[in-house]
User: What shape does this take?
Amino acid sequence: MGKKVIMIMVDGFGIPENGWFNSIYSEFCDSRFVKLLSDFSIPVTTDMGVDGIPQSATGQTALFTGFNAAQIMGMHMQGFPGPKLREVICRRNLFSNLLEKGKKVAFANAYVQFTLEELDKMRLKSVTTTMVESSIGWVRNIEDLLSGKAVYHDLTRKTIMDKGSIREISPEQAATDLMSISREHDFTLFEYFLTDKAGHKPDKTVLREVLGNLSSFVCQLIDEAAENTLIILTGDHGNCEDITTKRHTNNPVPLFIYNHPLPRNKELMSIEQIYSYIIEDIFINTKQGVS
Ligand SMILES: [Zn+2]
Assistant: This one.
């Protein structure tokens, strides 16, 4: 049986300064989730050797392309990628590389509010949207969502309940849906950005819900993961772990890997190294199946 990889990119999800067990995560997350992060993750730096506070456009470009995007731009760029970063993303990314190797890849997020064309016109293309458009070429929509073949970015669909037939689901159901998508693909990506949104407020009521949902979702994925299914969770930069600031942080992010050995030397990695770790260590160097 071939290997299945699920990658969850959590925006604004850093490692707390005082450790996992004395943090906003231990306060609001399922305790199993915090233990899992502590046991199966290594720290990854996000500054890429460039001064300033790490941001999403350069952080996610580095994570998904392996290029040092902050050095290419000479600074950390926030929000949506501009023309130069989009060119970097289109040059190569996790999806395009794996597709060239004959792997089946999926972006699980559902696009409900806008189509790809509309996002293009509004200049609201995120790093993942740019990557999907240039490789897979299509995105999952509301029909996919309703048939359990996509996951909404908030996990529970609560934020789109005004859209006719959409009903709220549990984060556990969202995990079951993601797992079923993963069974049909070698590599499945899901992006969760409410952590970053909540971290910019920061409002403890919102954080409780956002982190609680994320932890229930990941614990359910772990429960449903067959031996050949790897689960990777990482972030683009810190934010929600520090509620004393509304801004991003310079804290490292976790590289969490379940059902596969962590990088050998367990030393601090830099965010742009995750790309080759996934391609080489997970997809090329290891035998089919997981030890
Ligand atoms: Zn942010």
